[in-house]
Amino acid sequence: MNESLYLILALAAGALLGGMFFGGLSWTVLKGVAFKSPAPWFLGSLLLRMSMTVAGFYVVSRGNWQRLLMCLLGFLIARAIVTRLTRFTNEVSHAP
Predict the structure, then answer these.
(1) Are 26 and 86 in contact (CB under 8 A)?
(2) Which of 12, 16, 24, 64 has a Cα at 20 to 30 A from 82?
């Protein structure tokens, strides 16, 4: 396959990984505040999200720094999108 196609796929994979990571973080915070002892919930979520993200970056990059960089770019784009979406959701849910 063409290397530029691999880079586009790495960008998409990074966006997917970022969506799962930051979406999972948002979901964890929303659900975790309801627990009497939320520390195990947050720790388990962190370990699961980090292991999925690191494994995903490893698989996508395959030792190629350009793919790793594109995956990171997709991850950061997803961060911006999820942050914007959850900010709006949190503002609406906390309105008087």
Answers:
(1) yes
(2) 64
Instruction: Give the separation between CA 74 and CA 68, rounded to whole angstroms.
Output: 10
Region of 63 on the Ramachandran plot (φ > 0 left; ψ -120 to 50 alpha; else beta): left
Mean pLDDT along residues 16-44: 91
User: What is the distance between the alpha carbons of residues 9 and 82, in angstroms, rounded to a whole number?
Assistant: 20
Please give the average per-residue pLDDT across 52-66, as a whole number: 94
DSSP string of the chain?
Answer: --HHHHHHHHHHHHHHHHHHHHHHHHHHHHHHTTSSS-HHHHHHHHHHHHHHHHHHHHHHHTT-HHHHHHHHHHHHHHHHHHHHHHHHHHHHHT--
Residue 69 CA to chain centroid, in angstroms? Answer: 15
Average pLDDT value for the chain: 89
What pTM did the predictor assign?
0.84
Which residue in the block uniquely carries the two structure tokens 């979520």?
A: 45
